[in-house]
Design goal:
Elements lengths: L9 H12 L6 E5 L6 H11 L14 H8 L5 E4 L8 H11 L9 E5 L7 H12 L5 E7 L7 H6 L1 E4 L5 H11 L4 H10 L4 H6 L2 H20 L3 H11 L5 H23 L12 H10 L2 H17 L6 H13 L7 H9 L1
Helix pairs in contact: 2-3, 4-5, 7-8, 10-12, 11-15, 12-13, 12-14, 14-15
The structure holds zinc ion.
Zinc ion binds next to helix 3.
Amino acid sequence: MSWTTLIGNHRVKATLRAALREDRLAHALIFSGPDGVGKRQFALTLAKAVNCTEREADSCDQCSACRKIDEGAHMDVMLVEPEGTFIKIDQVRQLIQEAYYRPFEGRQRVFILDPADALNESAANALLKALEEPPATSLMILLTSRLHALLPTIRSRCQVHTFTPLTVKEIEGFLRERYRRPEDQTRLLARLSGGRIGRALEIDLSVYRTWRKEALELLKLLAAGDDRARLIKAAEYLGRKLSREEFEDRLSVVNILLRDLLYLAVEGDGADIINVDIASTLRRLAAVWPLERIAALSAHLETLRRNLQQNVHRQIALEDIFLLMVSGETCSSTEAKKRLLRK
Ligand SMILES: [Zn+2]
């Protein structure tokens, strides 16, 4: 990708481009921000921009340098990733040795550490030395979603660029351009992604929709409140032997629906809901289910999610929550509502 085709994070892009044009790019950079928002793409574009043989401070994506970098075959661009859990000291020693060589085929040697928070302590200390006296023809780019996990001494020697999640519009545009799929799916995926392209590419919409259908049936049962036998069955079904991760995934689908219902109950127009493809179904449900009860259910499920760490019996906990819900208990806590709306 060239600068013009990179999506989102316009301020980071403008800063890097200006630094390149004015030849004042720092030799050690940190790209900090959530996973899936394009940090690695930005780093690779920067690696091309400093090595492209056709363009000044940009990449053409056509010359042999750009193509080699895209293929991971450029002699001067190294991606350093964890071996196992950590980036180890031997990897950093090799990096440092390489960093002091002159470029083999390009103008600058570029080292991308992804994620830099995987450096173990001795590796981080070794890297520190190279960051203190950076070789003039080398550029180090440290990627992380956990800036606080890097040693303060490393952070202070690098120029930090902060990445943010992309807007729904940016993700929709990206998905439309690259993938052929019905518009309602594109809109749903963009909203489910939380502003992270990486996440949008990971989500299996057919799985999500299957789970959502089940969750919606459950919510309808809870809203109607008159079929306790089916609710107990639902608790049994949801509480069955799933791994904790799978169970949390299911819960999060219920929570996304509850969040949408709250938005619809509070704001009505549905501009901010995630499940845009079933807006009319959700609107009907929100119209018959009091706001306080939606908030109460959400608060109970959140407590359950937190208590999962204590190995609560899921099925019994769910039964308790469902029966509590249909027996008239409400949650008037404005805190809970606010928290839900922030999600
Ligand atoms: Zn090029």
